[in-house]
Design brief:
By secondary structure, the protein is an all-alpha fold. It contains five helices and no strands.
């Protein structure tokens, strides 16, 4: 009939696939948010709200990205369970495999979006730096944007 071990095996597979989904999809998203935080820090100037938001983005999403990347490894080293055989045909695993292609597509999209942004930031920083005259704050802002 129904055994309690079957329930725990199913729960274990579900948790493993959830961690895998977080690593495949969550890690690229948090990496993009870290880059946004660095851009906020670079362009904040004297604005304390933007500076605080940049710090929060970098620290919070950086720690979450490290947690997602390394928490399963740390948990596995403490628990020490030997690897189990792969369950093929599980519906949860198929869902994760279907969502697994989002990570590389997201990185490719970020790549295509970030190249024009980087060039625009470089030229904007160069323009600000060269038009700063004797304003040291504008010079620093331009060098930061470059």
């Amino acid at each position: 009939m129904f055994r309690l071990d079957d329930l725990f095996d199913g729960l274990k597979v579900l948790v493993e696939q959830l961690v895998r989904l977080l690593q495949l999809v969550g890690l690229p998203i948090f990496t993009v948010l870290i880059i946004v935080g660095f851009l906020l820090l670079l362009t904040s100037g004297k604005n304390p709200r933007r500076k605080k938001m940049g710090y929060v983005f970098v620290v919070l999403f950086g720690s979450e990205a490290l947690l997602i990347a390394y928490a399963p490894l740390i948990a596995h080293s403490f628990v020490g369970v030997e690897p189990q055989s792969a369950h093929s045909g599980d519906s949860v695993e198929n869902m994760v495999n279907g969502a697994g292609s989002i990570g590389p597509q997201l990185f490719k999209g970020v790549w295509y979006i970030s190249i024009p942004i980087v060039f625009t930031m470089f030229y904007y920083g160069l323009l600000v730096r060269l038009s700063a005259a004797k304003n040291p704050q504008k010079k620093r802002l331009g060098i930061g944007a470059i």
